[in-house]
Amino acid sequence: MDSLIQKAADLIKNGGIIAFPTETVYGLGADALDPEAVAKIFKAKGRPSDNPLIVHIAEIKDLEKLAQDIPEEAYILAKGFWPGPLTLVLKRQNIVPDITTSGLDTVAIRLPDHEIARSLIRQSGKYLAAPSANKSGRPSPTDAATVRKDFTEEEVPLIIDGGPTQVGLESTVLDLSVRPFTLLRSGGVSQKQIEYCLSDHSSLAHCKIRTSNPASDSDLTKTTSAPKSPGMKYKHYSPQAKLILCHKPEQIHSLIKKLRTQNLELKTKIGILCCKENHDKYPEANLVIAVGSISNLEEIASNIFRTLREFDSAGVDLIISESFPTEGIGLAIMDRLTKAASKLI
Ligand code: TXA
Ligand code: MG
After folding, report:
1. Whose CA is closest to atom 10 on ligand 1?
2. How many Å apart are CA 66 and CA 111, to the nearest integer?
């Protein structure tokens, strides 16, 4: 493993891109301060240039190299959650190139909780710009084999295989450059955990966080004219199959029945994404995949992206997904399903 990390570090030093594991999902990394290297990430992913990248660091002290006007709360949250799945948006230093931040005057920074990721950052001596290692719009990869399915060896010459990722969903993105602080993406750290961490400090006891993308937002096509987190306006996390997110499980049976009568030859291959407890409740579907126990949302989070891709591998045309509780990491699960879905019922 050490020699592989060294090889990856050398590629990064030479302006290349490589894929590596983090605790959330696999990332596609390049030197964040080298515009040409960062351009390779945008090209390989097919990512719109107005969707900025997260810069990954290995030491808290490096915050100051990349950001300025850093509020006290940034250090409190860094001490509370780093290394870990929290990304902080701060006013950027000029050394961060425009391409990395898509021209914004802020930069998103995170210190990942994965030994391989941190060793890579240290051995390359660089800060790593790293989006999730998937083609733009596809579900994020939680293992090395999935990364390879999205990218040829020419596009990404080296993938460090660190096994399946632990969290399975991307980091929480919190904007500290505005007041009130704004949650731009739900993820591995919940809003409650963030508020609790800040409330421990008496001067910040009443610190409240605003949410900008509640998972309950049912209008999938709605976009704001100037989104705070540019990535939020794009369709995301989508399997090739059409996904319908069902808020009431009892509606799933009538939906399947309706689809079957509309499609008399039973051509449409229907898959159900559900909790373990309901696995045997959908005998009329072609494929049922249980994503985890309803009493263990962490398990569901860690399996959700892999499961979406499994339906594609099985040639399913339509996925009908159950809904999950929106407490804790459940909010991030529902956010990803809502963004992947073409319809909510
Ligand atoms: O867990 C993660 O965060 C993974 C791993 C690899 O670290 N990375 C990841 O990156 O999910 P990506 O590029 O797939 O998502 C980054 C999100 C996007 O929604 C982007 O718009 C937002 O962070 N973002 C990046 N820089 C920003 C900034 N300066 N202001 C607001 N949002 C920003
Ligand atoms: Mg992504």
Report:
1. 131
2. 13
User: Which of 53, 109, 118 maximizes ligand 1 atoms within 8 Å of its Cβ, making it the mutation to test the pocket?
Assistant: 53
Record the pTM.
0.91
Quick one: which of 140, 129, 192, 187 has its CA closest to 164? 140
Ligand 1, atom 15, lies closest to the CA of 131
| Atom of ligand 1 lying closest to residue 27 CA | 6
Sign for the CA dihedral angle at 40, 23, 299, 310 comes to: positive
Specify the 3-state DSSP secondary structure of 22: coil
- Give me 63's structure tokens: 């915050």
What would the pLDDT profile of 261-298 be if each residue is shown by its tens digit?
876 656 789 999 999 999 999 998 999 999 999 999 99
Residue 212 near ligand 1, beta carbon < 6 Å: no
Q: By three-state DSSP, how is residue 65 classified?
A: helix
> How do residues 142-165 score in pLDDT, each as one tens digit?
999 999 999 999 999 999 999 999
Model confidence pLDDT, tens digit, residues 105-132: 999 999 999 999 999 999 999 999 999 9
| pLDDT bracket for residue 217 (50, 70, 90) | very low
User: Which region holds residue 84: left if phi is over 0, alpha if psi is between -120 and 50, else beta?
Assistant: left
